[in-house]
Amino acid sequence: MQSTVTPTHCPYCALQCGMNLTPAPDGTVEVSERTDFPVNRGALCGKGRTAAAVLAPGVRLTSPLVRDEGGALVPASWDEALDRIAAGLGRTRAEHGPDAVGVFGGGGLTNEKAYTLGKFARVVLGTSQIDYNGRFCMSSAAAAGIKAFGLDRGLPFPLEDIPKSGCVILVGSNLAETMPPSLRFFTELKENGGTLIVIDPRRTKTAEQADLHLAPRPGTDLALALGLLHLVIAEGRVDEEYVRERTAGWEDARAAAMAHWPEYVERITGVSVPQLRETVRLFCEPESAMVLTARGPEQQSKGTDTVGAWINLCLATGRAGRPLSGYGCLTGQGNGQGGREHGQKADQLPGYRKLDDPAARAHVAGVWGVDPDSLPGPGRSAYELLDALGTDIRSLLLMASNPVVSAPRAAHIEERIRSLDFLAVCDVVLSETAVLADVVLPVTQWAEETGTTTNLEGRVLLRRRAISPPEGIRSDLEVLHELAARLGVEKGFPTDPEEVFEELRRASAGGAADYSGITYRRLAEENGVFWPCPAEAEVETPGEDAGARPGGEAPAVHPGTPRLFLDRFATPDGRARFVPVSHRATAEEPDEEYPVLLTTGRVVAQYQSGAQTRRVAELNSAAPGPFVELHPRLAARLGAAEGDPVAVVSRRGRAVAPARITNAIRPDTVFMPFHWPGEGRANTLTNPALDPTSRMPEFKACAVRLETVER
Ligand code: SF4
């Protein structure tokens, strides 16, 4: 075991906080402050601080597992486990065709793994059926960003710009619990005289920090944004010159907004007209302002339009592509950003290229050494893929995801997974999904492997290996290498992450997410590089070949792009696009039978499906189980007291959890965190209604009824 301090990054959320790891003589690893990384400057939340606990042999998987004839998962050799997977996937492919084999990835995979998984699916398996759980995370913001700006990068500016802006509207983000170290940017914003406006149906810990908190009914923030734009127009606050010079499509968006009178918006959202007017004043008066969205507006069956409405507000007021102003999405998962750039998404090839673009196919096929015509086309989105398990899709290879807990309509998805002919799972722990597998492979974790991630700012980062994995553990790259060989592809699946990254650089060159100018060495020396970063900077003399300059002068190094769109947007004509959008109801409005709205989210001590964090004693004692948050008036109507078990029933199922009674939530809404399996699984209830563009399910609003439970 090495004994030095290794600077690296947290395995969990998209903030990707810097941390130092030091191996201790007893085999454990100490996590300590790393102050040189500007995003967190040494601060860590409890999840990051305790992340090393999951490295312990008693917590994690240490041997491959295969299902024996009696139906039990039992330890097996790597050769037996890999042979079984190759046979299982190969059999399905031979009997039912390549698209009967599915691949499901995760937003926690490094860029190298996400890239290799996408290549494995398309080159080795020949299947179009690959997607990943990042689809559940930010795909509506990605779709809206591409429509408006021609490019999707979570934040188009570094987090350090936030404190210098005049006003930030934070829509549907509880970052005080989801990424606590980021709260300081907003505290500094206020200390500098800026204003923080938080929009959330709950008075969250983040909302408590706000100068103004608006609590709309879940699923109505599209109407809210339209009402604000209506007032901007009515009060003469449109930046006409900016709209004329830097945008297109204003007239249609303007007409759509004018149909949303403030009083009408008040009736839909529950936010009063004076609050709407105050929001417009606070947003428009400073020289600069930002809108940041997270899962609240995005995880809706109209998420793309909802984010589009917030972008329209930014464009009409000249708050995009200007210093200290802009729209950004606070991506959630550790590599949610990079994971959607390099090919594990159903419709994408590396470099954020589109799978249905002939030029993109030719470029990537050239790098991969295959015929472009051999690459399959776009496949199903995450929920649609999971919903097809056991029917069109007979076998599944799943990496770093736990859909039994995290997918909407989870009982149905669990049933679909159980109906597969064959399931193989690569994970660090025996998750609720892994326990259903025919073969489970134990893989290395963040502290045991090198690789890159891309944080919510678009900053590509180097995670470094600090310790050796325990005996019997292999990396995901080694797994894919071995499986490719067993399925007849001997070359093209290296196990060295840097070798994979070098290929990823070539595959991404010229794409929207161009990493070709980024090297491991630069990442180590520069503490991260923002994409796009082409291999060479533009030279001053047009037409000059930067790679072959007179006198052997080295080509210019591109510095990376911390701030996007300052000169032009990434559309063909450089103008941002307004997208005309109108309010519409959620897919499932409350009615007599299901009169209450359910919204879901996270708590500070748990992460996503909880597969890792539920295994950490300190986190588990801080957040031991699910709960139903409800208003005292609703609790009184139900006859429930604090801690009483409450059943929440939707058209998809029933979940039971203790009541947590608080004035911090609207009386027409209940909230459940989604980190737990079993009786209190929130996703048993959620609605898989999909956004027509992003295919994002509607996690944030569905109709439920409450019942008391006798115990
Ligand atoms: Fe890790 Fe996110 Fe916590 Fe930072 S905020 S320590 S990245 S979980």
From TrEMBL:
Its EC number is 1.7.99.4. The keyword DNA damage does not apply. This is Assimilatory nitrate reductase catalytic subunit. Keywords: 4Fe-4S, Iron, Iron-sulfur, Metal-binding, Molybdenum, Oxidoreductase. Residues 540-562 are annotated as: Disordered. It comes from the Bacteria. One of its GO terms (molecular function) is NADH dehydrogenase activity. Residues 3-59 form the 4Fe-4S Mo/W bis-MGD-type domain. It is an enzyme of class 1 (oxidoreductase). GO terms for biological process: respiratory electron transport chain. One of its GO terms (cellular component) is membrane. Its cofactor is Mo-bis(molybdopterin guanine dinucleotide); [4Fe-4S] cluster. Pfam families: Molybdop_Fe4S4 (PF04879), Molybdopterin (PF00384), Molydop_binding (PF01568).
